[in-house]
Amino acid sequence: MLRTLLLIAVIAIALVAALQLPRGKWRLSSVLAISIALALLVEVVGAILVIAGATNNVLYNSAAVLEFFLILRVVYLFRPDWSAYVLVLAVLGLIAMVMDASMQDPSVFLLVEGVMILSMILCIVLIRSLWSLANTSEEPLGLVPEFWLFIGLLVYFGGMMPVIGLIRFVFQQDQELAARLYVIIPYLCMVRYGLTAYACILQRRRLARSLHG
Fold first, then answer.
1. Assign residue 114 a region: left if phi > 0, alpha if psi is -120 to 50, beta otherwise?
2. CB atoms within 10 A of CB 164
3. Residue 61, CB half-sphere, CA atoms under 13 Å: how many?
C-alpha cells in the first residue's frame, strides 16, 4: 500500500507541475495534463478496487488504450508532419487491443498481447521522436523538456514489455512470484512521472526566462 501511495504522490506532483504551465505556451501541455490526470484517476480508483476486493482488469485495459491515444497525440503535437504515420499507428494499436479482447475476457486478466503491442508501437515512435529531437534541437538535449518527457516514457514502456510478457506465464506457475515481478511496473511508472514533472518544470523555467529576456 505504501508503494501505491508513493506512486499516486509522484503522479500528483507531475500533474501539479503540468497545470502550472501557462496555458497555450507549450503545445504539449494540455494533452500532457489530461494524460497525467487519467493516470492519477486510474491509480486511485484501482487502489480503491483492490481494497474493496474487486478486480481492476477492465480499468487498466481501458486505460491502456486511452493512454496510448493520448501519447500518440503528444507525438503528433511534437511533429505535426507525422500525422499520417501517427494515424496508422493508432489504428494498428486499436486493432491489436480489439483482437486481443475478442480472444479473451478483458475482465479476467490484463490483455497481455494487446498491451505488449501498444508498448512496442510507443517505443518505436518515442525512439523516432528522440532521434528527430537529437537531429533538430539547437540546445543541448539536457535542456530540452521534450527530451526528458520522451525518455521517461521510453523507460516506462521499454521496461514494461519484458515484465508484461512474462507475467501471465509466471502467474500460471507461481502467483506469489508473479506479484513480485509486477512490483517492477510501479517503480518504472514513478521514473516516468518523475521525469514528466521535471520536463514540465524545465519548460516553465524556459518560459519564465523568455518573458524576462
1. alpha
2. 23
3. 21
Measured from the Cβ of residue 188, the count of other Cβ atoms closer than 10 Å reads 17
Residue among 131, 153, 20 nearest 82 (CA): 131
Cβ count within 10 A of residue 205: 12
Measure the CA–CA gap between 19 and 5, rounded to whole angstroms: 21
Q: What is the pLDDT of residues 58-88, one digit of tens each?
A: 899 999 999 999 999 999 999 999 999 999 9
Domain containing residue 140: CATH number: 1.20.1070
CB atoms within 10 A of CB 27: 13
Going 174 to 176 to 178 to 180, the CA torsion angle's sign is negative
Structural domain boundaries enclosing 60:
2-211
Domain count, the chain: 1
- Residue 198's closest CA among 186, 206, 208, 188? 206
Query: Structure pTM?
Result: 0.92
